Inverse folding.
């Protein structure tokens, strides 16, 4: 097998089970790589060597007693949007630069309980607003496949860290594509579960009706392992769903022979780079060879998903971010003249340009006189988009297409024009508006840069989704490609 840092979680779990490596050795290996290499990527905001080694020791003790499960002793990195007790949690914002969380997010708590080791907290777009990981207060993240290029956002820190072998896996959140896009641009497997599948408790809120936690891994098998520990009802999140968590690992090999795959014609529009389209078509042909039938489908309202999302998400963000006022939460300006000055300067200094743009847009679309024209209209269109997907799933099992219109672009290429940046989300955002599960798997390369295939399933269809991705990864090796210079 390849080097430790190129192994999947499943492979590392086998090594641990056979006592060929200890959790402490594994943790040291990754901590050493982070300190030697992360200056080139900026993928971590906070590295947690002490916490990690203490967790690794506890995991080794548990394993020595013959206890623990498939994740015990395996290190991962958490996006810095998840609160971790007594640990700095910044959401990549100056607003929360010094915030130490008093409790664990449910995702963190459940993975801790499964024996996972937390290497650190990863960089991201500020408050998860972005598609390229360039809006972070802590500076942009670079793509290990080409450090002049973006890793995708907003979970770009977790993606870059995993792609470069600084962590075997990472958590992310996906409000409009923030797991699937960075997965596509860094050659990883990125899973966004059904809205409500994983608890949002302790995950700093961006757009609460869209936010969902998921994973960035080297394989669908690893995504299944992590999801099994993360998923399930949580009384602390009123939108978490009370549905049993299937045995995702057991379901991996149960993909039906005769899959019906819907291919939306809207996914192959003029915005899609032709070489990305060829990679995706080749992946679809691979499914066909394995017995699947491709069915051309229509999602007639999908072209409205970007404008719809960029009304709904900012509206919710403007409300969620009102708590950061220098009084209840967040950065507090020095020497305020009066209360208004305190609010204005605390928020003015604490938030970056993209976050301010979202707050302004969101406040505008919710204001009296504009609410009906923008917010209410967007909610109605959201329902139409949801209906499009529901209708499509009456005749197909899964929907497939590209994850992003292009491979990774150069840093700075789209920062001057927010609308250009928002158009990166064109293939991922509809899935969030409809609350569906989606995954991106590596399906090719263009000039040495990875390309992602997106697979979408009906609500709570994570098991068939993962099985379809796993089957593809049994037949291809795109997910095992490694960026030059990071071996
Ligand atoms: N790119 C989208 C945005 O900027 C989605 C981000 C996300 O999924 N967190 O809002």
């Amino acid at each position: 097998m390849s080097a430790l840092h190129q192994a999947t979680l499943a492979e590392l779990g086998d090594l641990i089970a056979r006592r060929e490596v200890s959790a402490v050795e594994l943790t040291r290996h990754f901590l050493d790589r982070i300190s030697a290499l992360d200056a080139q990527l900026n993928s971590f905001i906070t590295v947690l060597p002490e916490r990690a080694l203490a967790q690794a020791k506890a995991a080794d003790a548990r394993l020595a007693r013959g206890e623990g499960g498939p994740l015990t002793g395996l290190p991962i990195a958490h996006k810095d949007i998840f609160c971790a007790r007594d640990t700095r949690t910044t959401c990549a914002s100056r607003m929360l630069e010094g915030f130490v969380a008093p409790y664990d997010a449910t995702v963190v708590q459940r993975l801790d309980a499964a024996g996972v080791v937390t290497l650190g907290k990863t960089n991201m777009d500020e408050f998860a607003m972005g598609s390229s990981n360039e809006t972070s207060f802590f500076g942009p993240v670079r793509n290990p496949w080409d450090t002049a290029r973006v890793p995708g956002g907003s979970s770009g820190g977790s993606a870059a860290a995993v792609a470069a072998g600084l962590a075997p896996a990472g958590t992310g959140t996906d409000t409009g594509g923030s797991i699937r896009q960075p997965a596509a641009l860094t050659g990883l497997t990125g899973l966004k579960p059904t809205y409500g599948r994983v608890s949002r408790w302790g995950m700093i809120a961006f757009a609460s009706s869209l936010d969902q936690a998921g994973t960035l891994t080297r394989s669908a098998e690893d995504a299944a392992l992590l999801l099994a520990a993360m998923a399930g009802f949580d009384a602390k999140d009123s939108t978490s769903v009370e549905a049993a968590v299937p045995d995702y690992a057991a379901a991996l090999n149960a993909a039906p022979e005769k899959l019906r795959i819907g291919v939306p014609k809207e996914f192959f529009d003029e915005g899609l780079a032709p070489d990305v389209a060829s990679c995706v078509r080749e992946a679809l042909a691979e499914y066909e060879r394995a017995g699947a039938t491709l069915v051309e489908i229509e999602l007639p309202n999908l072209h409205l998903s970007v404008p719809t999302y960029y009304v709904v998400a900012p509206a919710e963000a403007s409300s969620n971010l009102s708590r950061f006022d220098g009084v209840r939460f967040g950065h507090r300006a020095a020497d305020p003249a009066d209360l208004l000055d305190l609010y204005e300067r605390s928020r003015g200094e604490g938030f970056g340009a993209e976050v301010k743009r979202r707050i302004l847009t969101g406040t505008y679309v919710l204001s009296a006189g504009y609410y009906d024209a923008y917010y209410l209209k967007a909610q109605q269109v959201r329902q139409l988009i949801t209906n499009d997907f529901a209708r499509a799933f009456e005749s197909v099992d899964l929907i497939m297409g590209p994850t992003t219109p292009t491979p990774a672009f150069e840093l700075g290429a789209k920062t001057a024009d927010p609308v250009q940046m928002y158009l990166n989300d064109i293939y991922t955002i509809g899935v969030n508006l409809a609350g569906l599960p989606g995954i991106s798997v590596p399906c090719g390369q263009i000039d040495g840069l990875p390309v992602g295939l997106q697979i979408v399933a009906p609500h709570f269809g994570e098991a068939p989704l993962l099985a379809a991705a796993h089957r593809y990864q049994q037949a291809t090796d795109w997910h095992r490609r490694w960026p030059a210079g990071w071996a």
User: Anything to note?
Assistant: The chain has 16 helices and eleven strands. The first strand starts at residue 44 and ends at 47. The chain has one domain: 4-259+396-480.
